[in-house]
Each structure stands twice: as structure tokens, then as C-alpha cells.
């Protein structure tokens, strides 16, 4: 990560704490690594993102229903899903600094440095050739870019082959060959690479003799798979149909970093879409489009998004892609869309001995459906919004302000009601307006401090609208409505306020 993006991330983390968005878990005990708590504003933003996702997936699709499965599941679920045997990270330690790293992340970071070099060449050429610049041709012909792209492809190929064949010694050799050094010690003095299972386990049962090892779910998806027939039958769903679920997942991420990007306890919003075998690619394309549309409907710019198609597919997938977002530390995975075939259902059929076939009433056939999954981390989406929203602005009068331009419908508080003064009956009028608005929107009432300071505080919290009560309000029942992003103020009658706010606080999709 470059210095200024590191600084930016530090500022965002400090801002998130100062304004009640995110606190380090158990802070008074020096915190718990990669575990975070959401404060009074954080919990509202998180709820709003989750609700908007749920609305888009469940409410707007008549063939998708919801589910809330338990976090704890029968241990055989995780044997069947492959998590007991294969949900591993390849870890490596630096002998000098004693720091532990994920071998894949070390290699990923190395590749990212090469990609940055390529991007630099492209930006330079773009400036030189202007409108005549053809990026595709440039990538195919510029000698240094071609060489670097070849290098990336060779590294990826060798790394994937070594991991797939379990040749961890070669993963270490690759790290040494590329001369990847520990960022702390600066040396290449590495231990062997070994696999580490990411699931948290605990014991169920009161007597040690009959205790059973169970796992905290590492993904919510399996709760959907094991319930799919219960839902299909009780909701009388016909293929294609989906089941959506949001909830906590747990992964013992040893190398957790980058704030809430990679956590040990996090929340997923997942949807499994069950389709007829052979139709999965059609639905895979549908969900790719639909999910990108959802992201763009938030008003985040398309330049901050890109696709990353998986070259190396997981054992259960026949196609997979990530929606990546431009975080301060570069483009990183935000959401995954996977065509999971019939792998999971077949695995549960095999391990449970139960028939999980779908009976098609039209063709009178029984078969195991294929599944297309959309899976997004709620915390990661939160972080994408926070990083995009955080802005330090230089104003025309020479002053600066920090503003969180959170998409207005997702903002924790939608409106702050601010009487200009506490006296002359303005407080009473302010309370009256606040009491009528709070039934419709999350509102805050504030009368302390000068009005300019209150505006700044609300900008920093991300409240999209301030309603100011002044002396004119008492005369003609109008208030000023101030827009957080433009800082423009308009005079509007109290009577029109709710309708106006409804209009500006909804997504148009
Ligand atoms: N059911 C498929 C699945 O779990 P995944 O790619 O491992 O796929 C899906 O995870 C999404 O969950 C990711 O795109 C990311 O947004 C989020 N996620 C995964 N691990 C995470 C972690 N340790 N902390 C925060 N979010 C995480």
C-alpha cells in the first residue's frame, strides 16, 4: 500500500471511531485482533445496507424467499461441504521478524505491484495519445507491458498448479525465486509453507466423553443447502427459485488486516438460486448483471468497480467471478458470483443418505438442481461505502470540511433538525418539527453550538439533510433544507417537508 493510501485508510479508521461507526472490539482490553463492534451510527448504516439488499433480492423477486438458519450446524455438514478437509490458508512465517503471512497474499501483493507498473505505463500513454489511445492494443503491443503481463500469468499459473497438487515446497520456492521479502524484517528467511484450517471449532455436550466437535459456520450458504427442500416444499416453489439469507460467519483469519475488510467474525448476504441443470450459465449471466446493477444503483461510480473472473475454479464451481471495488489499498473482492453446479446438494445427499431431489411437476422428472450463488460481505460493502463517502473538501472561503457522502437512503440519520437559537420559541418549534419527522425518518434534534458547527458535525456524520428553524419559521411555517453534499439551502414549507424528503431519500431503482 502506498503511503498516501495508507494515510487515507488511517484517517477513515479514525473518523469511523470518532463518529460512532466502528470501534475495536474489547478496546479497553487492548482489543481483539480483526474483530470490530459497530457503534450507534455504524449499526444504522449496516442495517440499511442489509435491508436494501433484502428488499432488492427478496421483495423485488417473487421467486426468492428468505431464511434464517442457525450458526451452529451438524458437523457432517462441513465434512460434506469440503470445509473440514479443504478450507485452508497456506501460511508462511518469516524467521527473523516472527511474523506470519498468507503465502497467497504475499504473491497477490507482488502481482499487484506489477499491475501498478502496467497502470502507470497506461496512464502515461493515455496522456500522450489522448483520444487516439487504444488501451487494448497498447496492452498487446507495448514491450514492457507485454513482458509484465506474461510475468503475472506465469506466476499465477505456477502458484495455482503448486497449490492444486499440494506442492507447498514449490510455493515456498516461488516466494524465494520472486525474492519476496517480509515487509517487517526485509529478509527472505522463510519457514516452510503449511496449510491451516480456517474454521473455529468448539465442543457441544456437557461430558467430555460424549462431547462432539462442532464448528462456527464459515459461510451462510450451507444453511440454505440443507434447508432447500423444506423451503421448496413449504413455499411450493418451482424452479428456478432462490433462497436468500443474511447472517454471521466466522473464519480464523490468521493474517487479518485492512480494518473491516478481513475479519474473524463478519456478516454475509448470500442467495442460492436453484435452476434446471444446463440452465446455470444463463442464470449466472443474469445474476452477474443484476448484482452489478444493484451496486451502481447505490450511486457509487462504475470506475470503482471491475470484474475479476476466476481462472482457478473451486472444486464445486464451473464458473466464478468477483465484483471488485477500488478500496484505498487497490481493487479487492467485494462480492462473489459462483455457478456451484450440483456439488453441494449431491454432497449432502451422499453424507446424509437423504434424497434431496426436486420433482418437476411438468416433466414428472426428479433431479438435483444446479445452483448459482451470489455472496457479498456486509462489512465489506460497509467499508466500500465508507471509503467512497469519506472526503476532505477545500471550500471557497478557504476553510476545509470533512464530509461523509453516504448514499442518502443508506445514511444512519436522514435529517437533523436544528433551531437557529434556543430562545424566542425556536426550540419549541424545532421540537414540533422533529416530532412530526421522526415518525417517518431517522432524525436527530440538536440545539447546542453555533449553527455552522452543527452543520459541520452533521456533514462529518453523513446526515444528508439539515432542517433549520429560524425566526421566519414562526412567521410563515417555512424552514431551510440544507443539502450535505452541495451545501445548498432552499426554503420550503413545513407542510411539504415529508414529501420532499421521501423523494430525495429513496433509491430510484
Ligand atoms: N458462500 C461463498 C463464500 O463464502 P467467499 O468468497 O469465501 O464465498 C463471500 O465469501 C464474500 O464474503 C466475500 O466476497 C467477502 O465480501 C466476504 N468475506 C469473506 N471473508 C471475509 C472476511 N474474513 N471478512 C469480511 N468479509 C469476508
Could you walk me through the main structural features you see in this protein, from its secondary elements to its overall organization?
- This protein is about 40% helix and about 25% strand.
- It has a 7-stranded mixed sheet, with helices on both faces. A 5-stranded mixed sheet has the order 20-19-21-22-23, sandwiched between helices. It has a 3-stranded antiparallel sheet with strand order 5-4-6.
- It is globular.
- The model has no long low-confidence stretch (mean pLDDT about 95).
- The chain folds into 3 domains: about 250 residues, Bira Bifunctional Protein, Domain 2 (BirA Bifunctional Protein, domain 2); about 110 residues, Herpes Virus-1, CATH 3.30.40.230; about 90 residues, 3-Layer(aba) Sandwich (Rossmann fold).
- The longest helix has 27 residues.
- With about 500 residues, it is of the alpha+beta class.
- It contains 16 helices and 23 strands.
- Bound molecules: glycyl-adenosine-5'-phosphate.
- Glycyl-adenosine-5'-phosphate binds next to β10, β13, β16 and α12.
